[in-house]
């Protein structure tokens, strides 16, 4: 008499990982996400490993989580995985204020982002 099982949003040959509340603006995070979109997983991991961007290590961690989800939860072949989607969403924005000249105030916005990575297993064409 429990709840019915929720339908799976993704296809059977896909897996995803989500990281929420990353302390970086969505615009900057999207630059790194665009770097791995559509690539094979091994090439994407290599790009993130040698990237100069600070957030690349966190994006790599999320990608590794998506790969682990594909392997352990959905029995997909790791060597045939491709990054299908890597998209960024806005999270909250912390607002801080800094005193400025003549009694005014300067607003400081500290944005957070959400990152979702979807990997798909593709069959190798001969």
UniProtKB/TrEMBL annotation:
Statement: the UniProt record of this protein carries the keyword Cell inner membrane: no
One GO term describing the cellular component: cytosolic large ribosomal subunit
Molecular functions per Gene Ontology: rRNA binding; structural constituent of ribosome
A biological process from GO: translation
Function of the protein: This protein binds specifically to 23S rRNA; its binding is stimulated by other ribosomal proteins, e.g., L4, L17, and L20. It is important during the early stages of 50S assembly. It makes multiple contacts with different domains of the 23S rRNA in the assembled 50S subunit and ribosome. The globular domain of the protein is located near the polypeptide exit tunnel on the outside of the subunit, while an extended beta-hairpin is found that lines the wall of the exit tunnel in the center of the 70S ribosome.
Quaternary structure (record): Part of the 50S ribosomal subunit.
Designated name of the protein: Large ribosomal subunit protein uL22
Species this chain originates from: Hartmannibacter diazotrophicus
Gene name as annotated: rplV
């Amino acid at each position: 008499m429990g709840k019915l099982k929720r339908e799976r949003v993704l296809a059977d040959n896909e897996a995803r990982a989500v990281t929420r509340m990353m302390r970086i603006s969505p615009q900057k995070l999207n630059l790194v996400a665009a770097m791995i979109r559509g690539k094979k997983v091994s090439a994407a991991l290599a790009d993130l490993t040698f990237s100069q961007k600070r957030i690349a290590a966190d994006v790599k961690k999320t990608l590794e989580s998506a790969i682990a989800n594909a392997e352990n939860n959905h029995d997909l072949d790791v060597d045939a995985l491709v990054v299908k989607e890597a998209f960024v969403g806005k999270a909250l924005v912390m607002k801080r204020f800094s005193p400025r000249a003549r009694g005014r105030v300067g607003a400081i916005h500290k944005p957070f982002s959400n990152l979702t990575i979807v990997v798909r297993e593709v069959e190798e064409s001969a």
